Amino acid sequence: MADLQKIADAVIAGNREEVAQLTQAAVDEGVSPADIINQGLIAGMTVVGAKFKANEFYVPEVLIAARAMHAGMDIIKPLLVETGVQPRGTVVIGTVKGDLHDIGKNLVAMMLEGGGYEVIDLDVDVAPDKFVAAVNDKNPQIVALSALLTTTMPSMKDTIDALAAAGVRDKVKVMIGGAPVTQEYADEIGADGYAPDAASAVDLANALVG
Ligand code: B1M
User: Is the pLDDT of residue 148 over 70?
Assistant: First the structure.
């Protein structure tokens, strides 16, 4: 009988081979993809997020755990399509125009994937019109904006304004984050939420999609 807690433990330990092997064994035993994701892969990443918040894990451990989670997701993803399991929501994420910093954004993207979201990553230096195009094409529930420079924070407001000008602002929740960003700034530019770190970003996304 598959022990899904072992998958979670292997994710937390960042053991990519073990996650892949245990995930494949669970699939072969007929455990549902949704159970493997929720009780194994996401459960593991939830613990990783909590440890990261508590400063028990640092960036390298989170990246290694996320890589291990991906090894399991690679096995599960084709089955999700077959069984029609829906992600918790879709998030379009990117580092805003003029800004090339992607380490924090990638962490947020990985944690959101670990939290059960489909993540569409537009990469770095993303102009407002690219976010608008992605909202029109992919119909996400959330647009997630990252900025690391005080000089590129205004691109967050430009992006929100562009979503409004294109008539799609009410279709999505906008969350923002990055080292210089604050809740006050989120309020000032009309974002729906701010998260200080990658684990909090998952909590915020969950709150925003209800
Ligand atoms: Co840059 N850089 N950098 N840099 N860089 C900083 C940000 C800086 C603080 C360094 C300093 O001067 N002390 C400074 C900004 C000053 C300011 O604006 N106030 C700075 C500068 C000035 C620059 C350049 C202008 C330097 C130059 O060329 N003169 C230049 C700008 C280039 C550009 O973007 N146009 C530049 C370039 C670079 C590198 C390319 C060399 C490299 C980036 C490589 C890469 O990302 N692939 C780099 C790096 C690595 C840094 C530092 C050292 C580290 C940033 C990082 O990755 N942190 C940084 C100094 C520092 O922070 N100590 C610095 C780790 C990462 C996990 O944290 O990104 O904060 P962070 O993400 C966190 C949270 O913020 C949050 O969650 C993450 C995980 O918990 N978060 C979100 C992030 N996005 C979120 C989104 C959310 C929610 C949470 O919701 C959507």
Answer: yes
Nearest atom in ligand 1 to the alpha carbon of residue 102 is 46
Query: Contact 68/19 with Cβ under 8 angstroms?
Result: yes
Return the number of other C-beta atoms located less than 10 Å from residue 176's C-beta. 28
Which CATH number does the domain 90-209 belong to among 3.30.310.50, 3.40.50.720, 3.60.10.10, 3.40.50.280? 3.40.50.280
179 within ligand 1 shell (Cβ under 6 A): yes
The rounded Cα 53 to chain-centroid distance in angstroms is: 15
* pLDDT score at 1: 65
Mean residue pLDDT across the chain: 93
Q: Is the CB of 103 inside a 6 Å radius of any atom of ligand 1? A: yes
Quick one: tokens of 35? Answer: 């159970």
**Chain segment 11-20, per-residue pLDDT in tens:** 999 999 999 9
186 lines ligand 1 (CB under 6 A): no
CA–centroid distance, residue 151 to ligand 1 (Å):
12
Which CATH architecture describes the domain 4-83? Orthogonal Bundle (1.10)
166's tokens: 């294109």
Q: How many CB atoms lie within 10 A of CB 20?
A: 18
